[in-house]
Design brief:
By secondary structure, this protein is of the alpha/beta class. The chain has helices at 10-22, 34-40, 59-68, 86-95, 107-124; strands at residues 2-6, 27-31, 47-50, 77-81, 99-102. The protein is built from five helices and five strands, in the order E-H-E-H-E-H-E-H-E-H. It has a five-stranded parallel β-sheet with strand order 2-1-3-4-5, with helices on both faces. Helix 4 links the parallel strand 4 and strand 5 (99-102).
Length: 125
């Protein structure tokens, strides 16, 4: 499974990659903002993990743009962000985010959210 990790913080991208590696994943592509992520998104990407607050196309707009593309409609998307108010979580869900993690997080929480998303998307397919 190949992940596209989108965050304007290189440190945060490294934390996500390290967490994914600790739970057994090995294939990653990285992008520093939503515009870069859209340029890198292709059929080899199986799962998108994105931040919300980024320059040059934020996470919410990235999700909307991916959901508008035929090849992005069904891709699982997990948002990892500091935004924790209920309205933000609802807005992300309405945009097409499959699940949501508030920073900071543990590899175990990341694994649980990925398992939830994959279980739901596989069950629906």
């Amino acid at each position: 499974m190949k992940f596209l990790i989108v965050d304007d913080s290189a440190t945060m991208r490294r934390i996500v990659v390290n967490s994914l590696q600790r739970i057994g994943f090995k294939d990653f592509e990285e992008a520093g903002n939503g515009a870069e992520a859209l340029a890198k998104f292709n059929a080899s990407i199986d799962f998108v993990i994105t931040d919300w607050n980024m320059p040059n196309l934020g996470g919410l707009d990235l999700v909307k743009a991916l959901r508008a593309r035929p090849d992005g409609k069904g891709v699982p998307i997990l948002m990892i962000t500091t935004r924790s108010v209920k309205e933000d979580i609802l807005q992300a869900a309405q945009a097409g985010v499959n699940n949501y993690i508030v920073k900071p997080f543990t590899p175990q929480v990341l694994k649980e959210k990925i398992d939830q998303i994959l279980g739901a998307t596989q069950g629906a397919g």
